[in-house]
Write a structure and sequence with these properties.
heterodimer; A: alpha/beta; Rossmann fold; 10 helices; 7 strands; B: alpha/beta; 12 helices; 13 strands
Amino acid sequence: MSVNMDNMVKVFERPRSLTDAQFSYCPGCHHGVVARIIAQTIDELGIQERAVIVASVGCSVSMYEWFRCDGAQAAHGRASAVATGIKRVNPNLIVFTYQGDGDLAAIGTAESIHAANRGENITVIFINNQIYGMTGGQMAPTTLVGQWATSCPDGRNAELAGYPIRFAEMIAQLNAPVYVTRQALYDQKRIMSASRAIKKAFQCQVEGKGYSLVEMLTNCPTNWRMSPVETNSRLMNEVVKTFPLGDLVDRV
Amino acid sequence: MAEAAICAGCRAYFGYPITPQTELLEYMAAHMPAAGGAFVQAESEVAAINMCYGASAAGVRTMTSSSSPGISLKMEGISYLAAADLPCVIINVARGGPGLGNIAPAQGDYFQATKGGGHGDYRMIVLGPASIAEAVELVMLAFDLADKYRVPAMVLSDGMLGQMMEPVVLPEHISLDSLPGRPWALTGARGRGPNAVTSFAMDPVDLSRINTERQGRYRQIEENEVRYRETETSDATIIVVAYGTVARIARTTVKMARSQGIKLGLVQPITLWPFPYAPLRALSSRVSTILTVEMSAGQMVEDVRLAVADRADTPFYGELGGLVPTPKDILREVMHNVR
């Protein structure tokens, strides 16, 4: 069948704020979806020349290579402190961190909470996939009770390892954060909602309103040892029971 | 030292309270905002050094300060600063250690400062002031050298200097427009491609190339930036080597010894890295003894012995736990070693 290209209208394309570099994520991983949503948001808000990404340690370590904007790579857990330093000396920049659950809610707990408590005018994208992906599937602070991981081979035992940390709820107790929300990507409706949330979080910073955090429930097909479709079902049927979706703070 | 930093164009300071350097943090809290700079009292030393990483990456002269236990916490960040080629000034108002130790002056952080401290193959310029005037001068120099070579630089002082008051003539504020450009800084990708500040290079070939380039800058620093002060060394038969507060005390010892007819000289390393190996090596062939004095169990003495080898005797005298040697104490050790 021959197609006449002249009559075709492009309705979907690569966001301008993404480079041509290929993502290095595993097949079916949600990281790529989040990166795309962020890039689209940067395009829509017209902030590519002001945006600075602070990548963390983990599967997001090379994030700054995907984006056509300035970027820093932070030490493990320290992204919110690095973002603080950048934003404080140049408030005109739109600074966002992209951090996994081990980075933000374990080794970087102090930096993450205090940046939120100071109300730094930054945007934090928090990827909660309930496992350490890069190091090969160890228990995360967000791992569900009973969930298998290589460092809890009998499943997470709450008596020994405690319970999954609900970071969004924790910082929702603080006075300073302006927008705190938890979103997911397991179906089209959630992806649309997550896109709106990310845009709102960036908008918040552009308008100088203050700290915003989007916690994103995501998957890890490789280390959960499931197909991408199975991971979406698990997120929808199980994970949201521990991590309910929705806005926790909206002072925008 | 805080005012010297502002004079030098420092416009970002991040710190955490710890004795005996808290006055520095307090001064910055009061004066940095007025200078148009950023000040944050961080939640930890770890956070403070990483805020420095961000501010320096964004292109601004940046400083943090702390005292020994807090400097240990900054070591991760210093390794990252070095690896990302970010200039930054770190002041250590050193105190007694290890562990919590005490808040008295000490020099037990020499190894940490000059030999690494953090992980990986990196170097940090380390400057040792012996007075407030020198501290002012060396803080200014630290900013210039950090910018010139894109490396972190430490001013290694101690609790004596940190708690001392003495008159000093402050320099003029330098114009921020006169500072070297930072084309690599994260200022927004406008009219250019994206800039990245990173310490990450997955491919061993890439990391090897990056590290080799940085080592080349370290060799330049060793070649160009060695600084030291000699006192009464031209006819000396015995030399004391001391840095910082101890050098200042030993200067009195030199006068006392000379009045007794002992030909004592003093070498004060100003740059602890790069260490003045060559001048010590030159001196060692014409004196009998080179006595190292430190407020530690013997750290810089290892560098002195590297320089001197077996060309002269290299005894060591140290005080521990925050005790400070008097000029007489040092003279006594000199007398032990006079042939």
